[in-house]
Each structure stands twice: as structure tokens, then as C-alpha cells.
Amino acid sequence: MYDTLKYRRQREEMVEKQLKGRGITDTNVLGAMLNVPRHFFVSEALMDQAYGDFPLPIGEQQTISQPFIVAEMSQALQLSKDDRVLELGTGSGYQTAILAAIVSRVYTIERIHTLFVKARGLFDALKYHNILTRYSDGTSGWKAESPFDAIIVTAGAPQLPEHLISQLAIGGRLVIPIGDIHSQELIQLKREKQGVSKKSLGGCRFVKLVGEYGWKES
Ligand code: SAH
Fold first, then answer.
1. Of 65, 74, 92, 146, which is the active-site residue?
2. Does ligand 1 come within 6 angstroms of the Cβ of 154?
3. pLDDT tops 80 at residue 22
4. Exposed, middle or buried, 139 (CB in 10 Å: 0-12/13-18/19+)?
5. Cα separation, 64 vs 199, whole angstroms
6. What spacing in Å lies between the alpha carbon of 92 and ligand 1's midpoint?
7. Is there an atom of ligand 1 within 6 Å of 62 CB?
8. Residue 4, Cβ density class (10 Å: 0-12 exposed, 13-18 middle, ≥19 buried)
9. Which is it for strands 131-135 and 62-64: parallel, antiparallel or unpaired?
10. Residue 166 designated active-site
11. If you measure from the C-alpha of residue 5 to the centroid of ligand 1, how many angstroms do you get, rounded to a whole number?
């Protein structure tokens, strides 16, 4: 696997225009997005579009999120390098790789086997040794490895899976899109010593979170 100057330049432009230009200021996030080769996370036919300002199909009717959304969610997680992070919805593995470039350990769960296998192969090839993958319905979280400093859900949920809060450390952050199947609101929750604080980051559109505490399989 090789990176090229052409893609490096496209990443620089992506970071300037799509991210800094729209209010992403977290230097860890900007640095990760400058360095992680997003084109490896899409099929060869789509590589030249990998740094465009839009999501792309990754097979199995799923998508790799638009770069800005990846940056916005990562920034909202308020990450620091010793953090342990849980991701629900590995998909292409791109968001996972961004997290792994910033924090010490990332746990990621994917429910579609082909995507799980592909992403795991990519993490090996790109030498991400701090990513733990799991093939299952992630809606119940990963209790054995909890508490997490941050949890990110990269598929749209019909409502908040409340038990995810209990898998957060005190001070931990959860970022999750909640809404109907057509549009959702990106929500940032923080587990405080007492209770939970909540903030809306605006509208978004994700594929469905399917599982026991998500949408039912149709
Ligand atoms: N972060 C990914 C987003 C992929 S789309 C990327 O940028 O590529 C969302 C992913 O969530 C899909 O791969 C879908 O299969 C997965 N997903 C949906 N419901 C899930 C569940 N209950 N558990 C684990 N993964 C789930």
C-alpha cells in the first residue's frame, strides 16, 4: 500500500477548505485527517473521489462518511492521547483509523461480516496496532472493556441506547446521531459526576443502526 504526493495534496486541500474553513480547530483531529490515507478505505474505482466533500458507497448499502462529519464527530469526542474509545459501526474503518491516530486504544464493532473482514485487513496492512475489532451487533456496547473515555456511534439510532451511558467513564463523551431514517440530529452527551449533559451539533444523515437497541432488521 502506498500513499502518493497527489493524494497528500488532496488531503491538504481537504483539511484547509472542508475542515479548517468550517470551524474544525482541534489540532489532533486536523493532524490525523492530514495523515490518514482516506483513499485506501474506498474501492479502487472511487479513490480519486476519496477527498471530495461527500460520503461514498463502500458496499453492502453502507457509506464512508463525508470528511467534515468525521472531523466534527471526532472533535466533539474531545479526545486526548491516553483515551480508550469505543466505536459502533466500523464500516470502511476510516473513522476508526482517525481515532487510532489520536488515542491509545480503539475498540470497534461491525455487524456486517464482509465489511468487518475488509476493515480488519486494512488495519493490519496499515499497521494500526491499537485497534481491537469485533464482529457483532454493537448496540449493547462492549461491557467487558468499559468504561470508555469516549463512545462514537456512526449509524443513526431511533433513540438513545441508555446503557451506553453506563459504559462511559465519569467525564466521558458520547456522540450519536438520533432521529428517523431520513434525517437525524447529532447529539453530544457527557457523563458528569451526577447526571448527563447534552448538546446538539445539528442535523445529519446516516445509514441505520440496526440491532437490538437500534432499528429492527427489515
Ligand atoms: N465510520 C464508518 C461509517 C460506516 S456506515 C465509515 O466512515 O466508514 C455505518 C456502519 O455501521 C455500517 O458499516 C453498518 O453496517 C454499521 N452498523 C449498523 N448497525 C450496527 C450495529 N448494531 N452494530 C455494529 N455496526 C453496525
1. 65
2. yes
3. yes
4. buried
5. 24
6. 9
7. yes
8. exposed
9. unpaired
10. no
11. 30
Q: Kindly state the DSSP code that residue 157 receives in the 8-state scheme.
A: B
- Ligand 1, atom 2, lies closest to the CA of 91
How confident is the model over 187-193, as a mean pLDDT? 98
CA distance 70 to 169: 23
Ligand 1 lined by 145 (C-beta under 6 Å) = no
Whether pTM exceeds 0.70: yes
Domains of the chain: 5-204 (3.40.50.150)
Where does the pLDDT of residue 145 fall: very low under 50, low under 70, confident under 90, or very high at 90 and above?
A: very high
Decide whether any atom of ligand 1 lies within 6 Å of the 91 Cβ. Answer: yes
The phi and psi torsions of 102 (rounded to 5 degrees) equal -105, -45
Give 55-101 pLDDT, tens digit per residue: 999 999 999 999 999 999 999 999 999 999 999 999 999 999 999 99
